Amino acid sequence: MATEKRHRRHSPPAATPGASPTSSSNPESAVLRSPSPPPDVLPDIASRLTSLEDFFALRASCRAYRALLPPSRGVLASQSPLLLVALFPSFSEALFHLSLRRLHRFRLPWGHHLPPSRHTLLYAHGYLVTATTVSSHYPPRLLLLHLFSGVQIRLPKVPAPFTRVILSEDLAVVLFLPGRPTVQHCHLGDALWRVVCADAPDVVDDMLFVDGTLYALVNGLRLAIVELSENSLELSYLGGDLDDESRSVGELFRLGECGGDVLLISEDHEMMDYRVFQWVSEEGKWASVTSLGGRTLFLGYDGFASCLGPDYPGIRGDCLYAAGLRLGEWHEYSLTNGTCDVRYAEYPGAPPLNNSSPARPPVWVFPSLC
User: Fold this and answer.
1) Domain, as residue range, for 53
2) Compositional bias (Low complexity) spans (predicted)?
3) What pLDDT shows up at residue 31?
4) What is the DSSP letter of 11?
5) CB neighbours of 111 closer than 8 A, spacing ≥ 6?
6) Is residue 155 part of a domain?
7) Residue 24 pLDDT > 50
8) How far apart are CA 179 and CA 181, in angstroms?
9) What is the mean pLDDT of residues 10-26?
10) How confident is the model over 66-117, as pLDDT tens digits?
């Protein structure tokens, strides 16, 4: 990877309310404007659309189309990643389209509360994972809201503090505090959270589900497979630590995945520097990588979000997209040449950039992974 770092800042034009997100040169948009697309080609048309406005316009054009186009991974395959952002002064939430620079507004069940009674922690498997606003008198409650079907799954009161949450494909929820031994987990239908602890001196620094297996970074950078039960947490270590030459002062390390491979991602927000390591199981160690085979990694403010590609529409390959420290900020870091572009989601109703703002950093949303 090149050692020279070039930081470029971009401030895209503000969104225009009500503006059409389609382009006259887009062949799929031209089909949308035709009187009546044949039903047998509708799924193929939908799978090529890159904005939710186009998708829902297609569904709404005929009542019969709604049954033919249920929101699913197949028909939303080309949908662009979005940022869930806050609108000032109501602090309701909307979806920001990165390449079109436009907002997609929608109504959340708690959107009428002021100040907001809930905030969104992450998006995974089609669900927004939300928590009630922290109160010294009431423990937080988590609710899973499916962004497209509206299905709501309410979870029991959380008994212990947490800052991180991850979600498995079968909707098992795992909570933890980085640097602590305690892990909380809850499955669909559970009446209570199960609280388990790693044996001293082990502490959990990060966790991630990869192909149904739960991995953890323990005591720094040791990789382990985690087995959770009602009363215990079992760790099976897979190998050694990262070598000293690959470490830098001030870096934050997180787990990630790409194509089923477990990754270790280092980030230095101050230097806008990111590095990626892949777990080589045959050798039991981390190996530095500068190519993802055209895929793209997404980092949320609190952890790994997803991997897309290769050759995903409107997204740069072999790059890492990371939510920044400022509201509406994200970084596009090229693994091939080490350059970092800083971008901002400027839109009408963007909250003021100050420390007293109750808005949280943006959350990545992936319609194609619903």
Assistant:
1) 25-79
2) 12-27
3) 47
4) -
5) 90, 92, 93
6) no
7) no
8) 7
9) 38
10) 888 988 899 999 999 999 988 887 778 889 999 899 999 887 777 666 566 7
In a domain, 60, yes or no: yes
Residue 68 buriedness (CB in 10 A; 0-12 / 13-18 / 19+) = middle
| Structure-token pair, residue 296 | 């793209």
Q: What tens digit of pLDDT does each residue of 272-295 get?
A: 899 999 999 998 889 999 999 999
Nearest residue to 293 (alpha-carbon basis) of 318, 322, 314, 275: 318
* 328 and 348 Cβ atoms separated by less than 8 Å: no
Please confirm whether the linkage preceding 201 is cis (ω < 30° from 0): yes
User: How many folded domains does the chain comprise?
Assistant: 1
Measured CA to CA, the distance from residue 153 to residue 173 in angstroms comes to 11
The dihedral sign for the CA sequence 302, 304, 305, 311: positive
Structure tokens at 357: 């703002």
Amino acid identity at 341: D
Residue percentage of the chain with pLDDT more than 90: 52
Q: Is 70 exceeded by the pLDDT of residue 297?
A: yes
- The single-letter DSSP state of residue 131 is E
Higher per-residue pLDDT: 177 or 90: 177
Helix boundaries (H) for the chain: 27-32, 42-48, 52-60, 63-68
Distance, CA of 52 to CA of 67 (rounded, Å): 17
Structure tokens at 154: 């309410």
User: Does residue 65 lie in a domain region?
Assistant: yes
Distance of alpha carbon 206 from alpha carbon 103, whole angstroms? 32
What DSSP letter does each residue of 164-224 carry, written as one string?
EEEE-TT--EEEE-TTBSEEEEE-TT-SS-EEEEPPTT--EEEEEEETTEEEEEETTTEEE
242 inside domain: no
What pTM was computed for the model? 0.85
Q: Is 360 helix (H, G, I), strand (E, B) or coil?
A: coil
